Amino acid sequence: MSSNRPLRVALLLTTLSLLSACSFGNSKPAPEPVASTTANAPIDLQRFMGTWYVIGRVPNPVERGHVASVNEYSLRGDQKVSITYRFRDGFSQPQQELTVRASVDEKSGNHDWRTWFYKVVPTHTRVLEVAPDYSWAMLGYPGREMAWIFARKPDMDKELYKELATRLRDEYGVNTDKLKRVPQHPEQVDRLGYEVPNVR
Question: Tell me: domain 5-188, CATH 1.10.443.10, correct?
Fold first, then answer.
């Protein structure tokens, strides 16, 4: 990692946190989701821990252009979680990682998370929905500007991805016109609907 990368990432995350604050203060209330067991049931933190591949996301300043994106979650105390985000700028590039700590709001059924980058930059995310078998998850962001589709494996069936993207749009108000699939394999680069890597 270049010597100035932590500073660049911190600046981007500061911008992200400001967007978060503005979103909480000015956005319209999120639409109520259609009744769903996975949407309304509390999140089992123990089951949520482990490896999640980033299958799709609305590109954002921190993750834009990353490929082979993976999040590793581990409990580090009561309602406290450590998150390691691993990625590459291109499949020919070295793997990099960013470590984040999170605090989970138990009163929200473990759906609402507050994260800190470099121990000082706070952001907010919400686990919108998790598969009954914890094989996939959808996460959102205040104001609905950003969203993520996670899976336990690096590949997801096209029909399932389409269904989850539709739920993000119809049930959670996310602008899925900007949603992109994340290349997890080199052969996915340049395919329609996939995010373009920072380095080819």
Answer: no
Residue 122 confidence (pLDDT): 74
CA 76, chain centre distance (Å): 20
| CA–CA gap between residue 73 and residue 83 (Å, rounded) | 5
With bands split at pLDDT 50, 70 and 90, how would you rate the model's confidence at 2?
Answer: very low
CA distance 46 to 83: 14
- What is the C-alpha to C-alpha distance for residues 164 and 136, in angstroms, rounded to an integer? 9
Q: Answer yes or no: are the C-beta atoms of 67 and 91 closer than 8 Å.
A: yes
* Residue 173, SS3 per DSSP: coil
pTM comes to 0.82
Residue type, 147: A
Token code pair at residue 40:
């309304």
pLDDT tens profile 72-119: 999 998 899 999 999 999 999 999 999 999 999 999 999 999 988 666
